[in-house]
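This is your field. Have a critical look at the following sequence-structure pair:

***
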Amino acid sequence: MSIHKEGYKILFFGFLVLALLNVVVGILWPGLTLFRWGFLIFSLLLYIFLLFFFRLPERKIEPVHGLVYSPADGKVVVIEETFEKEYFRDTRLQISIFMSPFNMHSNRYPVSGTVKYVSHSPGRNIVAWHPKSSELNERTSVVIETPDGKEILVRQIAGAVARRIVTYAKRGQAVQQGDELGFIKFGSRVDIFLPVGTEVEVPLLQHVRANKSIIARL
């Protein structure tokens, strides 16, 4: 277990701010020992949560052609055929995973292949489990073409709390199943669009883990 690089700056400045606030509280309310202790405990709990949020567990896998691993930790909230209008412009099988602030937020490539498309779209910040969040919220879409020519779209979606989507994918890049695709800071959602007819391996409301849970078979 380690700390994700996306958390270094937040953890550093968060520590400084919380330390400074505790010094100020001690100066302004020197006699209110209970209040000072309460604020210190709150600060420690908040910092522990930040450490927990930016955790990066080691999850190495051996790539397996034909399997689709979950790109994120969270709960499966959508399994349906839908019209994907950004890239495919046809009907695809959509599997959506809601990530709460308590989930590990590193996103992984569900399959191996070549990155064919990367696009970032600004948008709103409605709750990530809302059906329209895939179209209206800030989002980044990445399309991976597998060695046998199948294209899979992974979409990172910001939620009501999330304020930054980080994507490491670059067009033309060769990627391996299980490698890191990106990171979303605080509550969010990841959609994956698969060819119609793909065999789904998870039920609705199932909790899944990136690089651990097989969600489909191509």
The chain is about 20% helix and 40% strand. The first strand starts at residue 2 and ends at 3. The mean pLDDT is 90.
